[in-house]
TrEMBL record:
PANTHER family: PYRUVATE DEHYDROGENASE E1 COMPONENT, TRANSKETOLASE-LIKE PYRIMIDINE-BINDING DOMAIN-CONTAINING PROTEIN. Pfam families: Transket_pyr. This is Transketolase. CDD domains: TPP_PYR_DXS_TK_like (cd07033). It comes from Streptomyces laculatispora. InterPro entries: PDH/Transketolase (IPR051157), THDP-binding (IPR029061), Transketo_C/PFOR_II (IPR009014), Transketolase-like_Pyr-bd (IPR005475). Gene3D superfamilies: 3.40.50.920, 3.40.50.970. Residues 2-167 form the Transketolase-like pyrimidine-binding domain. Signal peptide: none annotated.
């Protein structure tokens, strides 16, 4: 199976051929994959070098001319390093574009903490008007990317090497999908966390919701899953900073007594970089770690 990043390159290359209003801005990362696209569309495929602030500025400038820019590099260099440009050049100027990241929270541990971005979604959460997609499979990444490229709004697509075994349908509304029904608590699995959550909750009387779009947050979907329970226990499992979506879930359940547990990447920096699976285990995001914490919270 190809990776989400492989699929992004193949899909964007096709979209550039199909849509003359689409542009691509790179900062060296993935440039080799777009070699043909750069030669075919030299005025719409631009590599700015290792200049991430310019990367965002150039993308927003293209948007001001009427193009639909797709802007790509590692998450830490796409959101964190040029955050001021994301805030001003896209948000303050009121233009749209598609930011597509690679690297996720710790896809390449050997790159060190500079190449890790567990706080990217939380950081974007401080800005208004961003749609955030977190696919859990290359097929989902392609569908979400195609939808984003066809729009005119501000979209962040967060790609990862971690992937679920199979794709789930990606609806146009961006709502949560019910994967498993139960009468106890509700567990929301975001993107590539789904397989581990399903393994961790096997045999538990809990509803499992799947989210590939986390902003806007599907409060209606959460309320439907809670149903007519007199109180709600909700667990949110995200592949980035723990607790990123707890406030959104709290807002959705203001009329109902509830408890919320946010699971994800801890704030503590792990300096023994190891491998991606070791980071999952260290943060308790492997099936065993999730089983212990979800089961404990739900009273199992």
């Amino acid at each position: 199976m190809d990776t989400m990043r492989d699929r992004f390159i193949a899909t964007t290359t096709r979209l550039l051929d199909e849509d003359p209003q689409l542009a691509l801005v790179l900062a060296e990362i993935s440039r080799d994959g777009f070699d043909r696209a750069e030669r075919t569309h030299p005025h719409r495929v631009v590599n700015v070098g290792i200049r991430e602030q310019l990367l965002i500025g150039a993308g927003a400038g293209m948007a001001l001319t009427g193009l639909r820019p797709i802007v790509h590099t590692f998450a830490s260099f796409l959101v964190e390093r040029p955050f001021e440009q994301v805030k001003l050049d896209f948000g303050h100027q009121g233009v749209g574009g598609v930011l597509v990241s690679a690297g996720a929270s710790y896809d390449w541990p050997a790159g060190g903490f500079t190449h890790m971005a567990p706080g990217d979604v939380a950081l974007l959460d401080t800005l208004d008007g961003w749609t955030v997609h977190v696919p859990g499979h290359p097929d989902e990444a392609e569908a979400l990317l195609r939808g984003a490229a066809a729009g005119d709004d501000r979209v962040y697509v967060r790609l990862s090497l971690q992937s679920n075994d199979r794709a789930r349908p990606v609806g146009g509304t961006g709502g949560f999908t019910t994967v498993r029904e139960g009468t106890g608590g509700v567990v929301i699995a975001v993107g590539p966390m789904l397989d581990n959550v399903l393994a961790a909750t096997e045999g538990l009387d809990a509803t499992v919701l799947y989210a590939t779009t986390v902003r806007p947050f599907d409060g209606d979907g959460l309320r439907r899953a809670v149903g007519d329970r007199p109180a709600a226990d909700v667990v949110i499992v995200e592949p980035y900073l723990a607790g990123t979506s707890t406030a959104a879930a709290n807002d959705a359940l203001t009329a109902l007594p509830h408890r919320i547990l946010g699971l994800g990447v801890a704030r503590a920096e792990l300096r023994r970089y190891g491998q991606m699976d070791e980071h999952l285990t260290a943060h308790g995001l492997d099936p065993l770690g999730l089983r212990q914490r979800i089961g404990g919270f739900l009273g199992h």
